[in-house]
Design brief:
single chain, alpha/beta, TIM Barrel, two-stranded antiparallel ribbon, 12 helices, 10 strands, binds ribose-5-phosphate, EC 4.1.2.-, fructose-bisphosphate aldolase activity, lyase, FbaB-like, Putative aldolase LsrF
């Protein structure tokens, strides 16, 4: 490992220059050199026309139990699933509440080990093995990455094991940047964490929107999907989504800003307008308003 002294702060992100290894090949960022199976799973996640994805995250129960808006997955998911591209969930939710019909892609949460009752959520294990991931027909495996947290070594170990198994069976891994209570939500932190996860070998990074997001996205050689975070008023959530997509994200992986909205279906559709149809936040919010007043 190089001596940390004398390292210069990274600054040449070439944010106006497109990612260089996709120009004549496969459209998903950083996936041009992968094998057919990996590409097929990534193509199930990322739309071939827009290159982007709307993931609906409802895996919160894996450490929070029942949260507001997710009390009855059996009622919510059938209502919403036609309006998103990917369902991000636990295998428990998948087997009990997700109808095994249609073409929805699955991002399966495979790490676990904490609950809201812990002071430190950063200690996880790999809870779902590759065989069960295959049985669930998942298109990617989601693993929490606690960079800079107490459980960093354990979580990098989890990520590495899942990535190794994923490569063996051609199933992509999505690294989920976890922001612990002592960590700052700065671009400096997100540049560090997203890049570390990509260099470890994940095929997709899930992280948060932040200042200088263009630089975070430019320096990450795989697609970034942005988490929604805490519930915001719909217009603000759409503005965040618009900024994320216009500054280099390849999708949203949104939970509370969809399922805690009074109109989750219309909110999911409005997000889709930004993600797939290049709508502005203003246009998407107009769409949302029109849809809820129909
Ligand atoms: C990630 O670790 C969580 O389990 C959720 O998937 C994630 O936080 C996205 O949901 P939200 O948009 O509610 O933050």
């Amino acid at each position: 490992m190089p001596d940390m002294e004398g390292f210069k702060v990274a600054k040449d992100y070439h944010i106006d220059t497109e990612f260089a290894n996709n120009s004549k090949g496969f459209y998903v960022k950083g996936a041009n050199n992968l094998d057919w199976g990996m590409k097929k799973h990534l193509a199930n996640i990322f739309d071939k026309n827009s290159g982007n994805t709307v993931m609906f995250a409802f895996d919160h129960g894996y450490f929070m139990g029942s949260v507001s808006g997710l009390e009855r997955l059996d009622l919510l998911i059938p209502k919403l699933m036609d309006y998103v591209d990917v369902l991000m969930c636990t295998r428990g939710a998948l087997r009990t509440c997700v109808p095994p019909v249609g073409q929805k892609s699955i991002a399966l949460r495979v790490s676990s080990g904490s609950s809201m009752l812990n002071n430190d959520l950063s200690h996880e294990v790999v809870a779902v093995d590759i065989q069960d991931t295959i049985r669930c027909n998942a298109d990617c495996m989601a693993v929490q990455g606690f960079i800079g947290a107490d459980g960093q070594l354990q979580s990098i170990n989890n990520l590495s094991k899942v990535i190794n198994e994923g490569i063996r069976y051609s199933i992509p891994t999505m690294g989920v940047v976890a922001v612990g209570k002592d960590m700052e939500r700065t671009d400096r932190y997100f540049k560090l964490a997203t890049r570390i996860l990509a260099e470890i070998g994940v095929n997709i990074v899930k992280t948060y929107y932040c200042e200088n997001f263009e630089e975070v996205a430019a320096a990450c050689p795989v697609p970034i999907v942005v988490a929604g975070g805490k519930k915001l008023p719909e217009n603000e959530a759409l503005t965040m989504a618009y900024h994320a997509i216009s500054e280099g994200a390849h999708g949203l992986d949104m939970g509370r800003n969809i399922f805690q909205s009074l109109h989750p279906v219309e909110m999911a559709e409005a997000i889709g307008k930004i993600v797939h149809e290049k709508a502005t936040d203003k246009q998407a919010y107009e769409f949302y308003q029109d849809a809820i007043h129909k």
